[in-house]
Every structure is written in C-alpha cells, then in structure tokens.
From TrEMBL:
GO cellular-component term (any): membrane
Chain ranges of the AB hydrolase-1 domain: 28-258
Residues of the signal peptide: none
Top-level division of the source organism's lineage: Bacteria
Pfam families attached to this UniProt entry: Abhydrolase_6 (PF12697)
Protein name per UniProt: Alpha/beta fold hydrolase
C-alpha cells in the first residue's frame, strides 16, 4: 500500500479516477502499467516522495477508479490528461510524469495531446511488436474461459520474459491474487489496443524532454521500441539499467528513483 491524501477526479467521459498524493516539492504524476494498480509504486514511493509532491492514479477499470461503458486507449490518455490538468491547476504550473509499460504509452499519448507536462519519463512503453496477434487471441480465450491465471502466466513468461520458476513462485502471493481480478477485467482489451497503437506518430507530436529508461535484461521488444523512439522524439535521453528487466520499478527502485530525480531536476 501507499499512503497519502486521496482525491477522485472526473475524467472526460465522467469516469471517476482515483488518485493518492504525498511528499513535497515539484509535482510528479505516476501512471502504472498492466495487471496492477497504483499499489505498484510502493517500492518507489518512499524514495520519490523525498524530493517530489508525488501523485499516483489508479488507471480505469481497477483499484478505486471507475470504468467506462466502452474501452479505448484514447479514454486512458484522456484520464491521464485530466489528472495532469488538475495537478497543474493546484500546483500552479506544469507537472512531471513517469509511466511504466502501458502506463508509459498513456503518458506519451497524453503529452502528444497537450497535457500540461514539463518533462516525462517512460519505462519501456510497449507496442504492436510486444503483443503478437496469436498471443493476444490465446490470452483473450484464456480469460474468456475463466483462466486469468493462465493468461497472466503466459504474459509474464512469453511477453515480459520472466522464467517459469519465477512465475511459479509468485502464484501464491497476495500480489498475484490481486492481479488476477485486474487481468480478467483489463488484459485482453489493453493487449488488443496495443496491436494498433502507432508510437512513432504519437512521439512525433511530443514537445517535452523525455527520459527513456531501459532494462539491460529486458525482452528484445523493449530495446527495439526504445531505439525507435529516440529517432522520433525531438528531445530524448536513454538510460540503460544493467542487470535489470522490465520490472525494474520493483526490483531496482532506488536506481530508478535516482535516475528520475536527476532527470526531473533539470
């Protein structure tokens, strides 16, 4: 869990988006990835709140946020933009943002759409090459067949690159139990949305300085997308975290926090 002041903000389509805030300093918005909620940030929270007024949101369809009648990635980008505008109004200026995995896609898209960001940091945003069509169809069928656990294991092993032994060790944890509900509600729709996302087109419209964090042990798609984004973004910096994978926000929080603090101090 992460502690702080709670606030609910109404998104463009009326969906309530829950946020929690703590710390002091320049405002920083955190946008988590898939199969989780704002609780994902509990490893980073203690480090980031030392230097920033940090706010984390539950993305729609999980945690204490609501969900719309119809899903689209555009609605997720709007959620991030609405929360960013609320923070900017309350802090009196643009905010920084950090997104992990599909949360990074949401931050990137919100920036391209004019969200009031000063600087943004992205940890391995996924794209179409992350989720091959055959895998999306298999995972969707697993969830539809009442097997979200199989879909989650398939994602972690085949897409994220974790070992079967690591995934097996996670099965009986409280984190895995919480993730199953999120997987059932959101994994198929988010994977489907990623098959059509055009990161290059989005990145071409982003004016802010961008930090691209890449795990040295991450799956190949992460490096491919990161390299491509550096050629499209107008102002980007890549930092590779050796010995770290896609889950660096969990496994190397101090290193991630140090890179973020350095970048956002600019």
């Amino acid at each position: 869990m992460i502690d702080g002041k709670e606030r609910t903000i109404e998104s463009a389509d009326g969906t309530p988006i829950w946020t929690v805030s703590a710390g002091a300093g320049p405002p920083l918005l955190l946008v988590h990835g898939g199969m989780t909620s704002s609780t994902r940030w509990h490893h980073l929270w203690q480090f980031l709140t030392l230097h920033h007024a940090v706010s984390a949101m539950d993305r729609r369809g999980r945690g204490r946020s609501g969900d719309g009648d119809q899903y689209s990635l555009t609605s997720e980008l709007q959620d991030v933009a609405v929360v960013a505008r609320d923070l900017a109004e309350r802090h009196g200026g643009p905010v920084d943002a950090f997104g992990h995995s599909i949360g990074a896609v949401c931050v990137l898209g919100a920036a391209a759409a004019g969200a009031p960001f000063r600087r943004i940091a992205l940890y391995e945003p996924p794209g179409p090459e992350t989720v091959p069509r055959q895998w999306v169809e298999r995972a969707t069928a697993m969830v539809a067949g009442g097997q979200p656990g199989r879909a989650m294991a398939s994602f972690l092993i085949e897409v994220i690159g974790l070992s079967p032994q690591t995934v097996a060790a996670m099965r009986d944890t409280s984190v895995a139990a919480d993730a199953l509900e999120v997987v059932a509600a959101t994994l198929p729709r988010e994977a489907e949305a990623l098959t059509a996302v055009d990161l290059d087109r989005i990145a071409d419209s982003v004016p802010q300085p961008v930090l691209l964090l890449l795990g040295g042990d991450s799956p190949g798609w992460a490096g491919t997308i990161t390299e491509r984004l550096t050629g499209t973004l107008s102002d980007s910096t890549v930092v590779t975290l050796d010995g770290v994978g896609h889950e660096g926000v969990d496994t190397a929080p101090q290193r991630v926090a140090a890179e973020l603090t350095t970048f956002f101090s600019g």
